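Two records follow; treat each independently.
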Amino acid sequence: MAFQVQYRGLEAGHRLGYRGLERPANEVWPHAETAFEVLDVFFGVVFTLELLLKFLGSSLEFFKDVWNLLDGLVLAIWYVERMTATAFPLDPMILRLFRLTRLMRMVRLVKIFEQCDALYLMLTSIRASFAALAWSSALLVLIQMMLALAMVTIVEPYLTNPNSPGDRYDVYKYYGTFTRAMLTLFEITLGNFVPVTRLMMSDVSEIYVVFALIHKLVIGFAVVMVITGVFIQETVTVAQTDNTIMLTQKERALNLHMSKMTALFKAADFDESGRLDRGEWLQVCDDYSVQLWLAAMGLDVSNAALVHELICAATGLEDLCAKDLVMGVARLKGAARNIDMALFRKDAGPYNGA
């Protein structure tokens, strides 16, 4: 669809006589219309088969999924467009509206984005901060409206005086009406404020620089930065409270721990027996780099024999498989009190109350 829009834009530029587009679009992109037609029919058939397979596989559950209904609406509009294009002509504006409905297919990308952790966090944060966004935008618009009304009122005598120096047309372009003033204020807030400021200083008064600097410092920096800070806080809050994000982070940490411990097990299993005995564990823990690596993960192996004994105590065996090592290290790593409590339970044994 993007290529079709680009093609129509090239043709519109040629008809306007735009510089650099002296040739029509069918000469710049030969056979493009044929390719568009073939691809349009191809994807229409593919989407039809996809919906049919979904319907046959889920039966009535098909209609309970909003995404399926959206796909069905887009496909129905496509069929209407195809039939009206061949059977009887429609108004070009209606055909353009039909083409715009294809943009709804891009909404399906949201479903794909939710599978990516970073994009899911962004979408969830945007939804959670919608109220803050609405109120922040309302506050910013209200401030800009008051300033726009003030600027139009202040500049009006200059514009209505035929003896005013400078170019009144350029000044009117920025502050002649309320809507122009609103656009100008948002331009100097979010964009480049220098051209407008220089024009007003040279044509109206140099006092305008005071307004420009105050507006940039208060609105452009302070207010906008506060709004940005609110959104960042909302994002952090969502990341800390959303169940899906927390489960994903826990799962990622567990997978990372398993991969590291599996790599350690393979490096320590010198006889490749698939079991890690006491001697192999002590030998690999004698390596200072391994000690630092495990310490960085939160496991103190300064007494490697004791650590091996504690891990084996949970399984009742004298050697370990890869799974035993992963679970044992996960149980003991962390603050020193974890391994201390495990040692205490081992030494104290079962407690029988009197």
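The next record belongs to a different protein.
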Amino acid sequence: MRFFKRNRDAYNDKARAKVIAQRGMRLATDQETFGEYAELRDYVSTLAATGKLEEFDAIYNQAWESKARIPDGRPVYSMIISWVTSIHVPAELEQMQDYLNPFADRYRTAPSPITGALYAQALQFLAGLERGAAWAHQTSPSQWAGFVTAISSAQVVLDETREAAQESYIWHEVAYEFSLFTDGGRAGLDEAMERAWRLDRNNLSLIALHMQYLLPRWAGENEQDADQFARQAASLTAEEFGAGAYAVAYLNLANYPQVDAEDTAADPTLVYRGFIDMMERFGCVRTHNDFARTMSWLDQEQVVKDIFDGGLTIIDHGSWQGDSPEESLELAVRAYMYANENA
């Protein structure tokens, strides 16, 4: 975490450029990140804007039945929920109605757990824009009102499709996310998580999301809550991932800007073992970058140096969480330079 607390300009452009040239570092392509599903990601992300949302049901159902995964082990059926709703979310409230209309129209035309889940998910993005990114005490009454209205509208949609959704993973994942905003408290969150998780214990995306929700700023009591869950997830998925679920759970915290590693109960040795297990099973560009990113967050500089020296030259934007792909490359280069100096 020390590196990420440093000034992001700690290493100047000339020094970074030299390292990039010497090591042949570059950004990953979508094909390298998503493998054979790169084209599907691009296509699914355009369904709403092109008026083809009716195609999503078949795409989702096929992904669910196949349990196919992208190269880093995350399930396609879970990823496409994000691909169809989040890639083209507008930055301004004034543009949100145009974004929402295709999801609303599809739901009204063909109400179902799938169309209801997508519309509710889109409304969650509206809620986020209404509220803004400020801390609660800095959020105005009008912002809170907009947030509550959007969340309430989404909850109505979920309630309308609840009866038909008993075995619908997509509905349960979205309903789980909304359980954070209802009055069920921690027990309600855990129950909603279990209803989704029971449908596929090996869903790394869901495991990572729940880890985030167990932060004290959300539903957790202390850092032990999240660690206990990470260990439970690793135990339940050991046959598939070894200790990988523990590593992936903490990867998600590493990607959360407000979380310092020293404020968690992470066991760096177990995180390391988890990533070794993931590299053996899903040794792709994204996993390689996730490994380096998380170990840098944990101040394991010798490990970070070893990962880069061991051949990490293709940098994945999603792993390093820069505001742009170019900033992600800069962050990765700086992490390597810092590790090289401090290992």
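Discussion point: The two ends are 14 Å apart (CA to CA). How would you locate this feature using only the token line?
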